[in-house]
Write a structure and sequence with these properties.
Largest sheet: 8 strands, parallel
Radius of gyration: 18 Å
Distance between the termini: 40 Å
Order of helices and strands: EHEEEHEHEHEHEHEHEH
Number of helices: 8
Shape: globular
Strand content: 15-25%
Length: 291
């Protein structure tokens, strides 16, 4: 049978050939889940949309001077969420991530709603004892419980902070519960503001991180003018180059051990939003592993 007559297997990016799990350095874990979102649903469609858009990226990265997909990227089938509830789904994410890490791979999780990050960070914290998490997000997500569960996407960073230190960037929406927790734990979020992050602020952000960094990106960190395809868009967000400058500095001065890109709701915005998510994912793989 002539394999050229068939489309290649579904995978992130479009390399000349499919990368088997054993040969890949990067494993993409897509999770179609939006059970606890409280306004616009649709993030369950985000992972497949990002993967499909990645096929149309320019595979050569002019800044790194290489083809990022040469590291070997394997894409797993979508993880099936649990019908028992969000806590059980987070447990599945933990189990899946731990298994991938045990095989020596670099995990890239594509969401799905942000609550899933709790499971991934738990697995990473067991592997990397000096882990910290860089959160790029419009929302603080520090509630202890919301809508009868501690595993709501509005609680994700409260759960993550139970495992390791966090540094929050781009925040511009939070409730009184978030504010009380920030004060009680003496956290220092880097709030979004009118001007881009200065070099001094970037330095403060990076210096607050440990040597091993997991990055969690809620796409609503971006301004809605370039990223409207999210469940809860907030005005006054970060720009593309502002985010990239920060990620480049983190990659240069720290070790990025894994990351996720969350909360894309592709029906809520133009296709350019999905392409942005795919390009961000591809670029960050390169920054983390080919710097």
């Amino acid at each position: 049978m002539n394999e050229e007559m068939f489309y290649p297997r579904r995978s992130f990016s479009f390399p000349p050939k499919y990368t088997e799990f054993k040969d890949a350095k990067v494993v993409v874990l897509p999770i179609p889940y939006d059970s606890t979102v409280d306004w616009r649903a649709g993030t369950r469609e985000g992972p497949n949309a990002i993967i499909d858009a990645s096929h149309f990226l320019e595979q050569y990265d002019h800044e790194l001077g290489c083809y990022i997909h040469d590291v070997g990227i394997h894409t797993l089938p979508e993880l099936i969420p649990s019908m028992k509830g969000p806590e059980e789904t987070v447990e599945r994410v933990y189990t899946a991530t731990k298994d991938i890490l045990d095989k020596g791979k670099f995990v890239v999780m594509l969401g799905g709603e942000h609550s899933l990050t709790t499971g991934t960070v738990r697995a990473y914290r067991e592997r990397f004892k000096n882990l910290s998490v860089l959160q790029l997000d419009a929302h603080a997500d520090l509630r202890d419980e919301y809508e009868d569960t501690k595993f709501n996407h509005a609680c994700v960073m409260r759960r993550v902070h139970e495992y390791c230190p966090i540094v929050q960037v781009g925040i511009r929406s939070l409730g009184t519960d978030d504010q009380k927790y920030i004060k009680s734990k003496k956290l220092h979020p880097f709030y979004a503001k009118e001007k881009p992050l200065s070099q001094a602020e970037e330095k403060l952000i990076v210096s607050a991180l440990t040597d091993d960094v997991y990055i969690t990106i809620d796409l609503d960190v971006f301004d809605p003018s370039i990223m409207s395809a999210v469940g809860t868009p907030e005005p006054g967000g970060m720009g593309w180059y502002e985010v990239l400058r920060l990620l480049k500095r983190v990659a240069k001065e720290k070790r990025i051990v894994g990351f996720d890109v969350m909360e894309l709701a592709p029906r809520e915005g133009p296709s350019a939003c999905t392409f942005l998510a795919a390009k961000l994912t591809y670029k960050l793989i390169g920054l983390a592993l080919l710097k």
